[in-house]
User: Fold this.
Amino acid sequence: MDIIINTEDQTWRSTPASGLQSQTVTPTDGELDNLDNNTFKVDYIRIYKPVAK
Assistant:
């Protein structure tokens, strides 16, 4: 099996009920260019192995 660790923008968050672009939570390209603020780091993952009964 593979483990996929990611973060992504969901459409239910990026389109506000008001429909106003100014109220979206999706970052702009300029905001994403700043790697100091937009680096996804994972320092710990816990994985469990199933136990046969």
